[in-house]
Amino acid sequence: MKFIKSALSVAVCCVAAQAMAADGEINFTGSITANTCSVSVGDLNGGAGVNVSLGNAPALSLKKAGDTAGAGSFALTMTAPKDDKDCVLTGKTATVRFLSMNGAAGPNGEWLALEGAGGAGVAKNVAVQIRDAKGVDVQLGRASSEYADLTQPMRFTANYIATGEATPGTANAKASFSVDYK
């Protein structure tokens, strides 16, 4: 038994002696900003929430790329946290960027891909398009038109858009957003 312990001690020493070290570098980036204002999402009828119904659109209305159907609207409203003197909305402007949580669709990846795209039971050749208050297509990852009065809701609409001849199925999409105001 004494020999086994000694042999084990020698083996552990040999393994420990072969440990290696490596150097590396980590860069941390960021910025310090004034307090941020809050953003709430709601429908244009004053309801809160993030579900935008585009309704039931017949596949026949989405026969070729670029055809649109269904419609829904929503608004992003900026608010100052209570007693926050750093969040001043008057005189500020903002743009909004949307990112798809399901991937991108469209010739240039400008629209929201459907959840489960390509899967069973999901509509094919359909995406969701977002437009700003001016009716301009807000391409994924790109800034919307500028909103000049942040004391009012920033209004958007959404609709289905065909990327080819649509087939029936579920047509749900999710997006995240960021608001850049100055």
TrEMBL record:
Every copy of the Fimbrial-type adhesion domain together lies at 26-182
Record's subcellular location = Fimbrium
- Specify whether Signal is a keyword of the entry: yes
Q: Spell out the InterPro entries in the cross-references.
A: Adhesion_dom_fimbrial, Adhesion_dom_fimbrial_sf, Adhesion_dom_sf, Bact_Fimbrial_Adh_Pro
Q: Name one GO cellular component term.
A: pilus
Q: Where mainly located?
A: other
Kindly indicate whether the keyword Methyltransferase belongs to this entry: no
**Any Pfam family:** Fimbrial
The record's section on SUPFAM superfamilies has: Bacterial adhesins (SSF49401)
Q: Where are the transmembrane segments?
A: none
Ordered alphabetically, the record's keywords are: Fimbrium, Signal
Please provide the Gene Ontology terms (biological process) for this protein.
cell adhesion involved in single-species biofilm formation
Endpoints of the signal sequence? 1-21
Q: Which Gene3D superfamilies match?
A: Fimbrial-type adhesion domain
Please state which protein family the record places this protein in: Belongs to the fimbrial protein family.
Q: Can you name this protein?
A: Type 1 fimbrial protein
